[in-house]
């Protein structure tokens, strides 16, 4: 797999692969301040649930250095403000809040500013490294779930650049390519910001995976015409009952999978589960600016004054999901009533 490393932390400096510029340019952006980190998340230079969490964690580590001359009480106060600032960048992907909470938890009772700064950097690095290991395990588990599948559809980009490495829904394709597994992947372009065409197609090409681009509205016809055997998607937040929020258009695919009688898999790390909410009804759905829909490449494609609704995510109810593939194992539908205990136990394999 020869995909550029998406998030780099070296000598205390954070650099990210600028996803705006893909697939035309491999461009790295140095994020020197917490404002740089916030801006890169809001504008989707860095995107994808795990990558947002990792970048925000480094953002807090970077912010903490500003307060090294302060007393510990004011350090905690200031860092809490920074935590709230970063938490306001995007609302749906729970990995953001999970990573920020983990960072703050690490220094909750620390009474030395220098120690807190040191611990924050170490914790961000751990979050980053753990995600890579987690995605690799998701890939292996997904290869098992897809053992008899060749033609598969996906949406958005849940790949290497949306994580530390390998991705979630795309991990089986990257790992499979290394093992000589031949998949035929159909990638939905993913309107309105084209994570499918710009990012997924590019990523899979780098790994030598057979990938075909379709527009989102071609999904139903393609499943029928090309004999798609399964659909696999990533996730931004999974409720305790298995309801899953992911990129807008995912719900369409979940409904199509039921209609055509094919499997619908969600691939996500345990950090994407929000066990504090019982169902997907409680997941906040981000709405983004109307220009994402009314303009294309700087030109208007809808009349001035057009009313726009631009939700960035939708929620697929658990009854449409065949299984959720995690780093801890595969949770099949019959075990969705037991997700909290299966996912809640850190480090343990799912037994189902
Ligand atoms: C491994 S990434 C999983 C999800 O975050 C991904 O499928 C997705 O919906 C990303 O949305 P985005 O708006 O591009 O951040």
From TrEMBL:
One MF annotation (Gene Ontology) recorded for this entry: S-methyl-5-thioribose-1-phosphate isomerase activity
Residues given in the record as substrate binding sites: 47-49, 90, 195, 246-247
EC number: 5.3.1.23
Pathway: Amino-acid biosynthesis; L-methionine biosynthesis via salvage pathway; L-methionine from S-methyl-5-thio-alpha-D-ribose 1-phosphate: step 1/6
Protein's UniProt keywords contain Isomerase: yes
Record's keyword terms, sorted: Amino-acid biosynthesis, Isomerase, Methionine biosynthesis
Site (Transition state stabilizer) residue list: 156
GO biological process: L-methionine salvage from methylthioadenosine
UniProt-listed InterPro entries: IF-2B-related, IF-M1Pi, IF_2B-like_C, Initiation_fac_2B_a/b/d, M1Pi_N, NagB/RpiA_transferase-like
Pfam family, one: IF-2B
Catalytically driven reaction(s): 5-(methylsulfanyl)-alpha-D-ribose 1-phosphate = 5-(methylsulfanyl)-D-ribulose 1-phosphate
Catalytic residues as annotated in Swiss-Prot or TrEMBL: 236
HAMAP family: Salvage_MtnA
Protein purpose: Catalyzes the interconversion of methylthioribose-1-phosphate (MTR-1-P) into methylthioribulose-1-phosphate (MTRu-1-P).
NCBIfam families: eIF-2B_rel (TIGR00524), PRK05720.1 (NF004326), salvage_mtnA (TIGR00512)
PANTHER family named among the record's database cross-references: METHYLTHIORIBOSE-1-PHOSPHATE ISOMERASE (PTHR43475:SF4)
Subunit structure: Homodimer.
Protein name (Swiss-Prot/TrEMBL): Methylthioribose-1-phosphate isomerase
Organism field: Cytobacillus horneckiae
Lineage: Bacteria, Bacillati, Bacillota, Bacilli, Bacillales
Gene name of the encoded protein: mtnA
